[in-house]
Structure formats: C-alpha cells, structure tokens
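pasting for the record
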Amino acid sequence: MKEGKLNFDDLREMIQKNKGVKREEVIVRNDVGEDCSVIDFKNSCGIFSTDPITGATENVGKLAVHINCNDIASSGGTPIAILVTILAPITSSLQEINKIMSEISEESAKLGLEIIGGHTEVTSAVNKIVVSVTAIGRSEKNNIVKTAGATIGDDIIVTKDIALEGTAILANDYEERCKKILSSDEFEEAKLLIDKISVLKEGIIATRIGVNSMHDITEGGLLGALFEVAAASNTGFIVYEDKIPVKESTKKIAKEFSIDPLRLISSGCMLITTDKGKELVDALRKEGIKASIVGKVTRSKGILVSNGVELVVKEPKRDELFNIK
C-alpha cells in the first residue's frame, strides 16, 4: 500500500461497517471529513479528536498538539486536555523522547491544556518516532459546528495562507534544498510558519459570528478538505484559484519538490462555510487574521476554476508530502 490516508471510498466503507453500538449520547459520529466526535453530557458537550504525526521529522511535538486542538476549534469547542502516545524505535535515545515531551508540554501550556495521560514505548514495530495525541474539549450544545453543515449558497472562506504546515515541514526537514531556492528572509519565514498552525482564535471568532461548517485543512490540503466538506454535507463547491491565498515561498518550494500546494498539508488554515461571509472576513481581519472568500458551496460537483478553465476536483489521494522527489 502507498503511504498516506486510505483512499476516500475504502475509508468510508470501513467506517460504515465498524461502528460498534449506537449510543444516544453521541451527537456527532465518526465519518470521513468529521475530525471530531461529540458526546452530549447534558450540562455541556465533550469533543474528542485524535491524530498521529507521520510526515514530519522536526517539530513533531508541536504539530501533534496543534493539529488535534485545531480539530476541537473547528467543531466550535475549547480544548482542555490531551493524552499522548509515543512509539519510539529501538535506535532512539531518552534525550530525543524527552525533547518531544518538552515540546508537547510547552505548546500545551500556551493553549492552557493539561496532559492527563498516555503511553510511551520503545518498539521495533516502528522505524521512526511516532507521536499521537488525543485532544479533549468542551462546548455548549448550541455551539457545535459540523463538517457536514455546509449549505448551498454559503461563502467559502480560507484563513491565513494555504500549505502553511507543509511549507514549514519542508523548510525544516530539507533545509539545504530550500536554502538554494529561497532568499534568506523567505527561508527564515518559511521555517517559522510552524508557529502559525493554531486556528483556535479563528474558531472562537467564527463560532461567535455563526457559521455552518468548519474544517481544519490537514492531509490532502485545501482541495482534499473541500472534497471532504462537500461529501459530508452532500453538496458541491466552486473555488477560484486566483482567489486562493498562497505565499510566494510556498510556490517556490512546491515547484522545487514538484508538488501541488493545493493538495499539501495545511494545518493553520481554517476552511469555513457561512452565509455571513463578508461579516466574518471583516471580523477576522479586525483581529489580525488574514481571511479570503475563495468560492461558493454549490448543489453538486467540486469545481476548481484555474485560468478560466473549470476542473472537476476528484477525491483526495495521499498528501503531497508523501510525493516528495
């Protein structure tokens, strides 16, 4: 099998066939595109998300914390605690594991999280350190936002610039190649994009304004996230490439590695659909968060308009990070 997520159809079939029992307390269930599950505890709701870091070798502790807390924010919630699992190969040192845990602790402190448990193990089952975090959040029931909530006619908004995470990973993991194609300022900025991968602030603002769906743009990039939102919501979309915000350093790195920035992992960018597009963009910009309306939710099909040509967006395969040449 190829590296990366299972393909869309295989994953959806697996999820549908393996659900255990159906509990009435579960009000948002797992499905392709729904990164969080939500349990109604009457007084408030618990929100849960889990994901590993497999495509990066640097900043794995920081990434593990933020990608899962971003999922909580995308559901309209506030993260409160995490559990951490570390699987380390037998070639690892205690110093390496301690460094990752220190990074996780530092990022958790910034977000006001408690590390409440987990598991650490050295095993020959892996050939590099794998870090997986489970984030636990909470929200009031009327604030819950689903990936599956996109509505026909909604504006599609992207925050910040796409491929922030992928750009930072490549700049940090392939320093020599990136130094050759970027100016010194661009290179330093690309490495520091890792500090912009939290979407908690935009999640809070969007929940306050009122939105129909939110989705943290992770594996598969913007086009993968759009496909997942549309599939979960039984809708389509049309987006315009010339409206999609992409940093110049990202374009240069994408060209160097022969990859598509629209399909590159993009934690730090939030995909939002709402019937209050201008109001939300204005509110985000007022708080210093770049936001762009890039298209509309439609009745069917996913369309990318590139140089005036309408291209049908197909289901996401593996992230471009796994196609590095």
